[in-house]
Amino acid sequence: MESVLSYFRSYFDPGRSAPFENHSAGQIARHLFETLKQRGPVRYFGSKERPRGLQADLFLGHFYAFEELSKQNEFSKRIAFYSISDPVRRRALLESLAAEFDVPLPDWDFPPAGFDHEATMEWADLVLLVGNSYTLETFPLRWRHKIRLLNYAVDLSIFQRDFGVKRRNEFCYVATNCGLRKGFMDIIEVWKQIDPAAARLHAIGEIEPPWDDLLARSNNGSIVAHGWIDSREDEYVRLLQSSKFAHIPTYEEGQMGTLLEAIHAGCIPITTRASGIDDRVLEQCVVIEPRDIQQQVDAIYRVLAWTEDEYRERSGKLMETAVRCHNWTGFEQAVASAIVGQIGNLPPIVKSAVACEPLPDTPIDNRRQVTALPHKGSEHVA
Hints:
Structural class: alpha/beta
Helix content: 25-40%
Mean pLDDT: 90
Strand content: 15-25%
Order of helices and strands: EHEEHEHHEHEHEHEHEHEHEHEHHH
Strand order of the largest sheet: 2-1-3-4-5-6
CATH superfamily of the largest domain: Glycogen Phosphorylase B
Low-confidence stretches: 348-355, 357-368, 370-382
């Protein structure tokens, strides 16, 4: 089988190191490439490259360039890879929230100009989507029959290193950029109600205007801003391992890689279904609604009241479920199964994916988060 893969060279480039290869996009691209390579030769192109006249049995491409490459070349089968929830809904949600908060819309957080979501979905014979049932339900019903959900993973060797750090009743919030989509307004509003003597939150990620000013005007000392730290650095892992909990009330994702990093570093998250983390893993977390500020405040004080034994039991269940449900073997096998389903003459897959069985759980406030605009008009920082 001859195949073509289109992704981002800044995140993955066969045969040489890429600047952001440790990011989730880089790891995803590498595992897509390796899965395709097991089936035959692969030609790889970056998202800005637009080759013409190609012929291949299979085209697997990131959704940014998928439509254009599908039109310009001859592929027997076409599989689109979506790393975010439905882009049309995503823009509508963030535009609504930006207007409510009176903050700029992060245009860099959207597909490039000219991207046609409708055409991309129509060109695709199959769509691979990282996320959970919530992520799937953001897409219109007419397309869901061709969508297959995937879970990806992180490098456990980085986040499970033992630094001998003492865990405290503290929280972390981790994002490449602490801003609109990642629920940073909830962080600001919630933590101004948390007594710094009770707990602190370590915010790890870049904080740009106007978010830096909003934080400065509301911070009562309960939030410690560390700025962006490379996830490969010891300092990053130490900060995660020093906290028992994570508070990440994200509004919109595909599947949140930094949340997986926090989980594998031993943090129990207070988070949303929009995080895209596998539903079975979320059953071991504390699931809250975005923009329900009082619910989040209550959840923080509730987990702070856990005994050490309760924390250890819950942390153990969470870690076990995350390892079983988010692993690269399962990712590659799911991709391979999708390929076999599209290319009928391939030999069947022999090696089965790692099982992910539901475990006994004691979820807290695991209310189902609907895919309508998930905010409730609560007050925000002026």
